[in-house]
Amino acid sequence: MYIDFVQQHIEIPFYANLQTDSIGMDSQAHCFNRKMFDQHPAVRYQFNQVGFRTHSVDKFVHNAILVIGDSFTLGVGNNTQERYTDLIEKQLSHQVLNFSLNGASNDWITRKLQQLLKLFEPRAIVIHYTFTHRRELPQTDWHDNERTECEPLYSSQENYQNWFTNFQTIQALAGDTKLVHSFIPNWHNQTIDYAELGTNVISPMTQLDFARDGFHYGPRTHLELANKITSLLVA
Protein backbone atom coordinates (compact mmCIF):
# COMPACT_ATOMS: atom_id res chain seq x y z
CA MET A 1 0.00 0.00 0.00
CA TYR A 2 1.11 3.59 -0.69
CA ILE A 3 0.85 4.61 2.96
CA ASP A 4 3.20 1.77 3.94
CA PHE A 5 5.76 3.02 1.41
CA VAL A 6 5.44 6.57 2.73
CA GLN A 7 5.74 5.40 6.34
CA GLN A 8 8.90 3.47 5.48
CA HIS A 9 10.58 6.56 4.07
CA ILE A 10 9.46 9.56 6.10
CA GLU A 11 7.41 8.65 9.20
CA ILE A 12 8.09 10.36 12.55
CA PRO A 13 6.27 7.97 14.91
CA PHE A 14 6.20 10.38 17.86
CA TYR A 15 3.96 12.75 15.91
CA ALA A 16 1.94 10.24 13.89
CA ASN A 17 -1.80 11.02 14.25
CA LEU A 18 -1.05 13.34 17.17
CA GLN A 19 -3.75 15.84 18.13
CA THR A 20 -2.93 18.45 20.75
CA ASP A 21 -3.59 22.04 21.83
CA SER A 22 0.06 22.92 22.52
CA ILE A 23 3.52 21.97 21.36
CA GLY A 24 7.06 23.05 22.23
CA MET A 25 7.24 26.79 22.91
CA ASP A 26 3.52 27.15 22.26
CA SER A 27 2.51 26.27 25.81
CA GLN A 28 1.92 28.11 29.06
CA ALA A 29 5.13 26.65 30.46
CA HIS A 30 7.45 27.60 27.59
CA CYS A 31 5.94 30.59 25.77
CA PHE A 32 7.77 33.93 25.61
CA ASN A 33 4.71 35.96 26.53
CA ARG A 34 2.20 34.40 28.94
CA LYS A 35 -0.29 37.27 28.55
CA MET A 36 -0.25 36.92 24.77
CA PHE A 37 -0.66 33.17 25.10
CA ASP A 38 -3.62 33.44 27.46
CA GLN A 39 -5.43 36.05 25.32
CA HIS A 40 -4.83 34.31 21.99
CA PRO A 41 -7.59 32.28 20.28
CA ALA A 42 -7.24 28.51 20.60
CA VAL A 43 -4.65 26.78 18.43
CA ARG A 44 -5.13 23.18 17.36
CA TYR A 45 -2.41 20.84 16.13
CA GLN A 46 -3.30 17.79 14.09
CA PHE A 47 -0.63 15.62 12.50
CA ASN A 48 -1.21 13.11 9.74
CA GLN A 49 -0.54 9.37 9.64
CA VAL A 50 3.22 9.83 9.23
CA GLY A 51 3.72 12.66 11.71
CA PHE A 52 3.47 15.85 9.67
CA ARG A 53 1.08 18.78 10.10
CA THR A 54 -0.13 18.66 6.53
CA HIS A 55 -2.58 16.86 4.25
CA SER A 56 -3.59 13.27 4.97
CA VAL A 57 -1.35 10.78 3.17
CA ASP A 58 -4.26 9.50 1.08
CA LYS A 59 -4.69 13.05 -0.29
CA PHE A 60 -1.05 13.48 -1.42
CA VAL A 61 -0.59 14.39 -5.09
CA HIS A 62 2.57 13.34 -6.89
CA ASN A 63 3.43 16.82 -8.17
CA ALA A 64 2.74 18.75 -4.96
CA ILE A 65 4.88 21.71 -3.94
CA LEU A 66 7.15 20.48 -1.14
CA VAL A 67 8.05 22.81 1.73
CA ILE A 68 10.59 21.73 4.35
CA GLY A 69 11.56 23.59 7.51
CA ASP A 70 11.51 23.78 11.28
CA SER A 71 8.97 25.11 13.81
CA PHE A 72 8.47 28.35 11.85
CA THR A 73 7.23 26.28 8.92
CA LEU A 74 5.31 23.93 11.19
CA GLY A 75 3.40 27.05 12.21
CA VAL A 76 3.97 26.87 15.94
CA GLY A 77 1.47 29.18 17.64
CA ASN A 78 -0.78 29.40 14.57
CA ASN A 79 -3.68 27.44 13.17
CA THR A 80 -2.97 25.74 9.85
CA GLN A 81 -4.93 28.20 7.69
CA GLU A 82 -2.64 31.03 8.90
CA ARG A 83 0.64 29.40 7.82
CA TYR A 84 2.56 30.53 4.78
CA THR A 85 2.37 27.05 3.27
CA ASP A 86 -1.42 26.98 3.38
CA LEU A 87 -1.58 30.52 2.01
CA ILE A 88 0.67 29.57 -0.93
CA GLU A 89 -1.65 26.66 -1.66
CA LYS A 90 -4.58 29.07 -1.86
CA GLN A 91 -2.68 31.56 -3.97
CA LEU A 92 -1.56 28.96 -6.52
CA SER A 93 -4.54 26.57 -6.34
CA HIS A 94 -2.03 23.72 -6.14
CA GLN A 95 -1.35 21.32 -3.29
CA VAL A 96 1.43 22.34 -0.90
CA LEU A 97 2.76 19.71 1.48
CA ASN A 98 4.33 20.98 4.69
CA PHE A 99 7.13 18.67 5.84
CA SER A 100 8.45 20.41 8.94
CA LEU A 101 9.82 19.32 12.28
CA ASN A 102 9.88 21.24 15.54
CA GLY A 103 13.59 21.69 16.29
CA ALA A 104 14.80 20.57 12.86
CA SER A 105 18.38 21.07 11.73
CA ASN A 106 19.53 21.99 8.24
CA ASP A 107 21.06 18.51 8.05
CA TRP A 108 17.59 17.06 8.63
CA ILE A 109 16.03 19.39 6.04
CA THR A 110 18.49 18.14 3.42
CA ARG A 111 18.07 14.48 4.34
CA LYS A 112 14.30 14.82 4.36
CA LEU A 113 14.34 16.28 0.85
CA GLN A 114 16.39 13.30 -0.32
CA GLN A 115 13.72 10.97 1.09
CA LEU A 116 10.79 12.97 -0.28
CA LEU A 117 12.18 12.93 -3.81
CA LYS A 118 11.75 9.15 -3.73
CA LEU A 119 8.01 9.74 -3.31
CA PHE A 120 7.27 12.88 -5.34
CA GLU A 121 8.05 14.66 -8.58
CA PRO A 122 7.29 18.09 -7.16
CA ARG A 123 6.17 21.14 -9.07
CA ALA A 124 8.48 23.15 -6.83
CA ILE A 125 10.55 22.91 -3.65
CA VAL A 126 10.67 25.55 -0.92
CA ILE A 127 13.29 25.37 1.82
CA HIS A 128 13.03 27.49 4.98
CA TYR A 129 16.40 27.13 6.68
CA THR A 130 16.84 26.96 10.44
CA PHE A 131 19.64 27.98 12.83
CA THR A 132 23.08 27.06 11.52
CA HIS A 133 24.35 25.81 14.89
CA ARG A 134 21.92 22.88 14.86
CA ARG A 135 23.16 19.50 13.67
CA GLU A 136 21.64 16.08 13.17
CA LEU A 137 23.10 13.40 15.42
CA PRO A 138 24.45 10.29 13.63
CA GLN A 139 22.27 7.77 15.47
CA THR A 140 20.29 6.41 12.53
CA ASP A 141 18.30 4.05 14.75
CA TRP A 142 16.78 7.07 16.56
CA HIS A 143 13.62 8.79 15.31
CA ASP A 144 13.91 12.18 13.61
CA ASN A 145 12.61 14.14 16.59
CA GLU A 146 15.35 12.63 18.79
CA ARG A 147 18.34 13.44 16.60
CA THR A 148 18.72 17.24 16.69
CA GLU A 149 21.82 18.59 18.42
CA CYS A 150 20.83 22.09 19.54
CA GLU A 151 23.87 23.08 21.57
CA PRO A 152 26.18 25.63 19.87
CA LEU A 153 29.27 23.43 19.64
CA TYR A 154 30.93 24.86 16.53
CA SER A 155 32.39 28.15 15.34
CA SER A 156 30.38 30.55 13.18
CA GLN A 157 32.51 29.64 10.18
CA GLU A 158 32.00 25.92 10.76
CA ASN A 159 28.26 26.50 11.10
CA TYR A 160 28.13 28.47 7.87
CA GLN A 161 30.18 25.89 6.00
CA ASN A 162 27.87 23.11 7.19
CA TRP A 163 24.87 25.12 6.04
CA PHE A 164 26.51 25.90 2.70
CA THR A 165 27.20 22.21 2.12
CA ASN A 166 23.51 21.54 2.71
CA PHE A 167 22.59 24.44 0.41
CA GLN A 168 24.70 23.00 -2.41
CA THR A 169 23.30 19.50 -1.85
CA ILE A 170 19.75 20.81 -2.04
CA GLN A 171 20.56 22.68 -5.25
CA ALA A 172 21.88 19.46 -6.77
CA LEU A 173 18.92 17.40 -5.56
CA ALA A 174 16.42 19.86 -7.01
CA GLY A 175 17.97 19.73 -10.46
CA ASP A 176 15.61 21.44 -12.89
CA THR A 177 12.76 21.64 -10.37
CA LYS A 178 11.90 25.20 -9.34
CA LEU A 179 13.54 25.88 -5.98
CA VAL A 180 13.18 28.70 -3.45
CA HIS A 181 15.58 29.17 -0.52
CA SER A 182 14.40 31.17 2.51
CA PHE A 183 15.51 31.66 6.10
CA ILE A 184 14.12 32.07 9.59
CA PRO A 185 15.11 35.24 11.50
CA ASN A 186 18.59 35.24 13.07
CA TRP A 187 19.45 31.93 11.44
CA HIS A 188 23.15 32.80 11.40
CA ASN A 189 25.21 35.24 13.45
CA GLN A 190 27.27 36.73 10.62
CA THR A 191 26.36 39.06 7.77
CA ILE A 192 25.38 37.23 4.58
CA ASP A 193 25.32 38.61 1.03
CA TYR A 194 22.09 36.96 -0.12
CA ALA A 195 22.39 38.33 -3.65
CA GLU A 196 25.50 36.18 -4.12
CA LEU A 197 23.46 33.06 -3.40
CA GLY A 198 21.18 33.49 -6.40
CA THR A 199 17.92 34.98 -7.61
CA ASN A 200 15.88 32.19 -6.01
CA VAL A 201 16.80 33.30 -2.48
CA ILE A 202 14.60 35.25 -0.05
CA SER A 203 16.52 36.95 2.76
CA PRO A 204 15.18 36.62 6.32
CA MET A 205 11.80 38.21 6.93
CA THR A 206 11.22 41.28 9.04
CA GLN A 207 8.92 39.85 11.67
CA LEU A 208 5.69 41.87 11.51
CA ASP A 209 3.90 40.07 14.33
CA PHE A 210 4.16 37.08 16.63
CA ALA A 211 2.36 33.79 17.12
CA ARG A 212 0.64 32.77 20.33
CA ASP A 213 3.97 31.79 21.90
CA GLY A 214 5.42 35.29 21.44
CA PHE A 215 8.34 34.03 19.34
CA HIS A 216 7.34 32.47 16.00
CA TYR A 217 5.77 34.19 12.99
CA GLY A 218 2.29 35.60 13.44
CA PRO A 219 -0.33 35.62 10.65
CA ARG A 220 0.85 38.87 9.04
CA THR A 221 4.41 37.61 8.75
CA HIS A 222 3.20 34.29 7.34
CA LEU A 223 1.22 36.18 4.72
CA GLU A 224 4.16 38.39 3.74
CA LEU A 225 6.39 35.33 3.38
CA ALA A 226 3.74 33.53 1.33
CA ASN A 227 3.51 36.50 -1.03
CA LYS A 228 7.28 36.58 -1.54
CA ILE A 229 7.54 32.84 -2.19
CA THR A 230 4.56 32.81 -4.54
CA SER A 231 6.05 35.67 -6.56
CA LEU A 232 9.19 33.59 -7.15
CA LEU A 233 7.25 30.42 -7.94
CA VAL A 234 5.23 32.11 -10.67
CA ALA A 235 8.12 34.11 -12.13
What percentage of residues falls in helices of 4 or more residues?
25-40%
C-alpha Rg, in Å?
A: 17 Å
Spans of at least 5 consecutive residues with low confidence: none
**Quick one: how many beta strands?**
8
Taking the sheet with the most strands, its summary is: 4 strands, parallel
Q: Could you give the order of strands across the largest sheet?
A: 4-3-5-8
SSE order = HEHEEHHEHEEEHEH
| Proportion of residues in extended strands | 5-15%
Number of helices: 7
Structural class: alpha/beta
N→C terminal distance? 37 Å
User: Which shape, going by the Cα principal axes?
Assistant: globular
Mean pLDDT: 96
Reconstruct the topology from this structure.
Blueprint: H1 2-10, E1 19-20, H2 34-39, E2 45-46, E3 65-69, H3 71-74, H4 84-92, E4 96-100, H5 106-116, E5 124-129, E6 135-136, E7 148-149, H6 156-174, E8 178-183, H7 219-233
Parallel strand pairs: 3-4, 3-5, 5-8
Antiparallel strand pairs: 1-2, 6-7
Helix pairs in contact: 4-7, 5-6
Please give a handful of descriptors for the protein shown.
235 residues; two-stranded antiparallel ribbon; 13% strand; globular
Describe the 3D structure.
- The chain has 235 residues and is of the alpha/beta class.
- It is 31% helix and 13% strand.
- It contains seven helices and eight strands.
- The protein has helices spanning 2-10, 34-39, 71-74, 84-92, 106-116, 156-174, 219-233, and strands at 19-20, 45-46, 65-69, 96-100, 124-129, 135-136, 148-149, 178-183.
- The strands form three sheets. It has a four-stranded parallel beta sheet with strand order 4-3-5-8, sandwiched between helices. A two-stranded antiparallel ribbon has the order 1-2.
- Helix 5 packs parallel to helix 6.
- The longest helix has 19 residues, at 156-174.
- It is globular, with a radius of gyration of 17 Å.
- The mean pLDDT is 96.
